[in-house]
Write a structure and sequence with these properties.
heterodimer, A: 8 helices, 0% strand, B: 3-stranded antiparallel β-sheet, 3 strands, 16% strand
Amino acid sequence: MNDREQQYERAMLWYPRTWRDRHGRALMADLMDQDDARGRVAPSNAERWALALHGIGKRLSDGRAAGIAAAAVGAALISAAAVGPLEVFALLPGVAITRFAGGVLLGAGLATLLLVRQSRRRSISPVVALLAAAGIVFIGACLFSLLGPPPAGVAVSGPAQFVPLGWQYAAYSTFGPALAAAAATTVLCTIGGLVAFTSVRHHARNDALAG
Amino acid sequence: MMLQMLEYQRVTKRLSETEFWVLVSLAGGRRHGYGVLSEVEQLSEGTVRIRMATLYAALEQLASRELIEPAGEEEVLGRTRRYYRLASGGRTELSTAAAQRAAAAKTAETRLRTSARPAVTT
């Protein structure tokens, strides 16, 4: 597979896997024919944007994205509600972070079950599954951290009032600002690394399939 | 009920500009994706330019309405070209759409002819 084909492969990842299985090869052939006729050696930006736009549209119209979003909210709510008993850990230092961790564990369990199932059915790519799982866990944990009263001494204002509120309560109350930032970086790097790893494996498998 | 309504909308939906031109191209015979795309540009004298992703969306839509149908695949230069042809429903649909466009064009021309007379100013 040459460089241009790889670029198109990547652009086609916006489409659901089932769609790519059905139309991917024919679409690739047509894109190649078009490029040859027009003397293009790499995909144009306009073509890539069009593929991304239609790919996302396809995912949404298939109802799977809607299903995943609904499942994400469901998992987040369940994980938030189910960690209630963990209040027993309130005796330990860093109450909020304990609750946050509980939310992460439960959310991760649910999200993994759900997404592995979806991924097995080949309805979503591993990259999307992983991103969605990370999102579910994060939202779940944030919601859960917010269930309790904010830890004493944590002033939350401005941009901090948006989504990561729960996480900030948790991290600030336990570590203080510097360590909280370090923890945030670690979490983001881990997620990024996992996404990159899955993506590389995914491409390697596609390449192997394409011979 | 809802599903029936959606089904009705799907079947009776008017052709988009892209879909119209795809049918026009396939009325000339069996074509593969790029064949359709390049012919549409040529037939419309460059006024209609379609991106490949848009073409695929149109092909899927038309196939789901049974206006076109797959007509085999061929390996050329190691590439799998997928061909389509007009289905009988597509022929009827295209002829209706063409008649509507002709009628619309006629109305516009008549209007222009009558309004071409110098306006009376007071």
